[in-house]
Amino acid sequence: MANLSGLSICVFGGDRREVELVCALIDSGAHVSCFGTPTEGLRSEAVVAPSARDACAGADAVILPLSGTDLGGNVKITSRPVAVTRELLAMADSAAMVFSGIVRPCLAAECAALGLAVVDTGEDDELAILNSIPSAEGAILMAMQATPFTIHNSNCLVIGSGRTGLTLARMLHGLGAHVWVAARKAKDRARAFEMGMEPVDFPDLSHCLPQIDIVFNTAPALVLDRSLVYTLRRTAVIIDLASTPGGTDFVAAAERGIHAELAPGLPGKVAPLTAGRILARVIPRIIENEFRKREREHEPGR
Question: Average model confidence (pLDDT) for the chain?
Answer without folding.
Answer: 93
